[in-house]
Amino acid sequence: MTQSNSTGLTRRALLRAFTATAVAAAPTYSMAAGFLRGGGDIRRIRMYSGRTGERIDMVYWIDGDYIKDAVKEINYFMRDWRVDQVKSMDLRTVDIMAAAHNLMDVNEPYMLLSGYRSPQTNAMLRSRSRGVARNSLHMQGQAADLRLASRSVSQMANAAIACRAGGVGKYYRSNFVHMDCGEVRSWGG
């Protein structure tokens, strides 16, 4: 169902136009301490999964409102692919990811290594690595592990840390950065 405004444009046409602009904005929520003043009124996320082969590139927030269908697609994309379970991701994490991506000024999509993790998947990963937390924020849909070929772990982490909006972990050996919307903190290297 599309709605027309007085100029005859549909919401879908407006979304396509906004997506084509490739403008990404930073989050502006109360705990972010205004780190994105003047960031704009569009938020965009670009990712791909090496595990599933899926890609996502979409505007998910326009002028103060999350786009319901876009959020639904993000939740599906960030699902636990091992058990095919979907959980609503905490959009604060997606906002941090989008803001950090914007700060790095790259066109390359993130490679998503891990978004939501079911308790079963978290337990399996924990049995293989001591770097996996027992009560990981991944199980709450509040964390993502990401990689960019064109940016180092340090560059990615510094961009996420600059957001001052959640946790940032640097994993140099595995070449990824953890971003979450939990307590502001950082760890690794």
Automatic annotation (TrEMBL):
Q: Keyword annotations for this protein?
A: Cell wall biogenesis/degradation, Hydrolase, Metal-binding, Metalloprotease, Protease, Signal, Zinc
Obligatory cofactor(s): Zn(2+)
Q: Which Gene3D superfamilies match?
A: 3.30.1380.10
An example molecular function term from Gene Ontology annotations = metal ion binding
Pathway it works in: Cell wall biogenesis; cell wall polysaccharide biosynthesis
Q: Which domain of life is it from?
A: Bacteria
Look up the record and give one Gene Ontology term from the biological process aspect: cell wall organization
Q: Where is the signal peptide?
A: 1-24
For this protein, the record's InterPro entries field holds: MepK (IPR010275), TAT_signal (IPR006311), Zn_M74/Hedgehog-like (IPR009045)
Key word Protease present: yes
Q: Which is an annotated Pfam family here? A: Peptidase_M15_2
Specify whether Metal-binding is a keyword of the entry: yes
Similarity-based family: Belongs to the peptidase M15 family.
Name listed for the protein in its UniProt record? Murein endopeptidase K
Could you tell me which species this protein originates from?
Ruegeria pomeroyi
